[in-house]
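Supplementary material to the annual report.
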Amino acid sequence: MAGAALSGRVTWRVGTVVALHDETTTARTIAFHVPDWPGHVAGQHVDVRLTASDGYSAVRSYSIASAPNSEKHVELTVERLPDGEVSPYLTQDIAVGDRLELRGPIGGWFVWRAQQTEPIQLLAGGSGLVPLMAMIRSRGAAGNTAPFRLLYSVREPEAILYRDELKALSDHDGTLTLTFAYTRVAPKDWPRPPGRIDAVLIAHTTWPSDLSPTCYVCGPTPFVESAASLLIAAGHDPNRIRTERFGATGEPR
Amino acid sequence: MGIISRGFSGRRQSADVKLPPGQYLTTDFPVLSAGPTPHVPLDGWEFTISDGANILQRWDWTSFRELPTDTVTVDLHCVTRWSKLGTSWEGVSLDTVLAEVKTDAAYAFVHSYGDYTTNLPLKDLKNKQAWIAFRFDGKDLAAEHGGPARLLVPHLYLWKSAKWVRGITLLQQDMPGFWESLGYNNYGDPWREQRYQGE
Amino acid sequence: MSSQSDDYLDGNAAAGELSNIFAIDITAAEGQCAHCGATKHFAEAHLYTQAPGFVARCATCQHVLLRVVTVNQRVLLDMRGMTYLMFDTSRLHDSGQ
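Predicted assembly:
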């Protein structure tokens, strides 16, 4: 294990699809077995490379959704974009048994390690939830009880990723607090009308800055810029805010 | 080459028309940029021709728009492999812009609002090969596509058609621009597939 | 539709490409902008990827920090926009160990 950590270079590896699970009508989780996977930390991502028979290739980055584990198991959750070149293939065409190239794990700054004990504030915009879910799952797997809050901005109830798992966690774990912020369509009788996150929501549902939480913000670039600004305006130290931007269309890179 | 991904072909369309080697047809108009979109108010816009020491010609938006224009239909070829055919532009020909300029410089160094630059032989800007374009598809050129005005040099890869063009410096010695200085071909003829240095 | 000035990612998205040449994860490295002096983690740089190469710009002043072009087996890297990049060599590429 130590050998893998010291190997230095990040290389392309081949993963075999072992399971597929549709999270929503447009998002799918793909589970890979990667025999030479060196392990990963929550928050990291992989690059996926697809190659056509004529040699044409396309590379896209996807956050790892699964918690660190020792089973060489890597899960990605991919959102299908209407004009995407890669996401339609990953969410509709691939099958169990297919082999794909993955490069990773990548990233050492936008990570949460199970040794961390401070309060954690997670802000997710749409599919930006994926690396934050890896953090939540990592916390569960490690038995870490650091207080976590998640503010999850999502278009509408049908777009919620990992809905059942989030509900179970929220119901049973008193140290994990979950708030949904619907931006386009809210459930019937929802107390807050649909809209983007704002200072009021931040004030009511996120950790106050005097607790010095570490904040992780992930989602499309406009969401990240807005959410990070709101956190700073609420008094959070910019050095305690970590961000990862997906493209304005939601597909990283 | 990586392992083949079963059933993957990407978004490329086959074309019935002949495209330069390695290009794929697109019907949309991808926006590629090396930086934030500059927003240039028209009352501050200018276009200059300089020899490095002196400004030889200068237009503000008003005087620029008094120049005669051409409407042309051209094909665009981007080094990132997409081609868009039959695009319609209105602009001022570089022949018009350079008409009063007396120079023995052989090279043009093009600079834009923002920090983008590109270079090409001066002769490639002449003889109905290049325009300062300000309208695309019948409408004012959008900022994301280079408006208020961009260079348009369709016989070369599109990175030579500098968006948000601001001026040209005439040089005796060629000087590589933003992408030319980092591995891209100094000239960039799509029909000879001159994408990178050393081709 | 987002405004065009929002069409950037951040340094996290360059890490895979740069892992071809850096043995150490670049996102956690701290860099100083040669133009304005701002010091931030490379992950915080504004990254423009919709281009013939990657361009990382200072989040404070927008000057180019780093440019990288990958052509077949060649990687060209221009880092003139940074006064320095500071790496923690005890980390290398993190795989959770």
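The radius of gyration of chain A is 18 Å.
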